[in-house]
Amino acid sequence: MAVDALDPGPDGTYPHFPRDAQGRPVWSDAPTGLPVLNGGAPMPRGVQPMRDPCDPGRLLAVDVTPRRPDGEPINPPVIPPASPA
Question: Region entry Disordered: which residue ranges (predicted)?
Fold first, then answer.
């Protein structure tokens, strides 16, 4: 079953958001070439250049920062990794 990285989950921790080995959210400000880390690519954010689909010679500046319905940026909390039992 597919999961959505931007689904906050029942406790608001965004359990499927890409994280590093310490449980910190992983972001990328790079427009392309996102490296895979812990099985997932970092979440893009910020203003990225994109080609205008109606005029491929024109670049647009598009804000790709994930946002909540109220327009505030999503800021997932750190989820510390579980300690080995």
Answer: 1-85
Beta bridge partners of 50: 60
In the prediction, which pLDDT does 39 show?
60
* 62: nearest Cα among 19, 41, 25, 31: 31
Tell me the β-bridge partners of 84: none
Q: Say if CB 40 and CB 33 are below 8 A apart.
A: no
Q: What is the pLDDT of residues 23-37, one digit of tens each?
A: 889 888 876 555 666
Residue 2 and residue 75: Cα distance in Å, rounded?
22
Residue 44, burial from CB neighbour count under 10 angstroms (0-12, 13-18, 19+): middle
One DSSP character per residue, 4-55 reads -TT--TTTTS-TTS-B-TTS-B-EE--SS-PPPBTTBPPEE-SEEEEEETTE
Q: pTM for the complete prediction?
A: 0.72
